[in-house]
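Q: I have two molecules that I believe assemble together. Could you output structure tokens for the complex as a whole instead of separate predictions?
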Amino acid sequence: MVEGWMYLPAVSASTFVWISGQFVIFASKNFDMSKKGKVLMAMSGGIDSTVAALMLHDEGYEVVGITMKTWDYASSVGVNNKKETGCCNLDSFNDARMAAVEHGFPHFILDIREEFGDFVIENFVDEYLAGRTPNPCVMCNTHIKWRALLKRADAMGCDFIATGHYAQIHQHSNGRYFIRKGIDDTKDQSYVLWGLQQDLLSRTLLPLGTYHKKDIRQMAHDYGYPELAKKNESYEICFVPDNDYRGFLKRRVEGLEEKVQGGYFVDKTGKILGQHKGYPFYTVGQRKGLDIALGKPAFVTQIIPETNTVVLGDEADLNGSNMQVGKINWIKYEGITDGMESLTKIRYKDKGALSNLYTYENGVNVRFYEDVKGIAPGQSAVFYEGEDVIGGGIIQRQPIETT
RNA sequence: UGGGUUAUGGUGUAACGGCAGCACUACAGAUUUUGAUUCUGUCUGUCUAGGUUCGAAUCCUAGUAACCCAA
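A: Yes, here they are, computed for all two components at once.
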């Protein structure tokens, strides 16, 4: 069966057929040899990727729109949940498709639920069960989304793939492709792209990297999509549209709640402060939702899955000046020299802090010049040289101190 | 079981007999393509029953409960 694909007829004369695992194109008659090349544009249905698609189209690229279905969201929350989510719902598909049809380029829906679920969701669950704090968007970009796009791009003879991220890609004189921050500092999304490898970067276009969000809004108006311009940003994990990742974990892991409830909150000396709902439901740096009143704000400073213990402290206890980062992907250079200075971000929307980088066997030791707050294992660390991404990796769990 | 102390929101604590306040928690918004953080706002309380007083969280009596000392 042709289960992986849904073909939505758009206006192109091309015919796309799925044959035994391969995507085959039967050449269209009016195949215009576009000077700029053919690009497979990932369209979520939101304002950013829609405008990006139209921009490329206007610039003379032969655009093929594609919307990826990562998750059957009706199954993850109640069906009556009317909340808009940034991707994966029917409205978004329709919005994306409408724009494509109106501007005369084809649009497809690609069902990647299986590969997405196998990797991103399992990784997400595993990480929380390991007492870490994953970033599924980064995982998806790194391992699923770009690979899925490129695979189809190749099958369709596309020169490029494109997304609506606010970031830039340039080629260095050393030959390597690298990511640079988007010029709109408030929207820069280079952080979530640190995992992309050279073969992906060399084929990727990010049309929005040199624009400000307000310009994109204006362009959405100018293109005749005022309602799109008003559309909210998406801001939850795409497979957890009700924004309750704890509930998602409970639904996903049979008997989890019962198994982990009743562990202890302790202070840094090990003194028991109270009981918690289970270590997977907390994250380093968390203050709200602890359900414990100590007269002072309390923050989660450490999660110890082995003993189902959550360590609490005050704000100062979140400070740290070094960390280990693994699963490194170098971007701008093939590697670095020890001691290299880097502006290092430890979370999305982090201003970044200056640090020195020292490589060790499987990763990088980061020493910050000054304390940073809330280093959370599982989160991504991204290294910047000015506006450029040197590389990034995953923050590792610190060895448990036995004091 | 004898003596003493205490009792204020979900928690910890303030209030000379004169509008019950603070912190924490919780909740709601804002922000955010991850989790968090941050910001703004909101709710809830004087153990019970009598008494004194213009007026009681506050003083008196009894009850109840908890804690401490004695045993």
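A: One point stands out. Residues 136-156 of chain A form the longest helix (21 residues).
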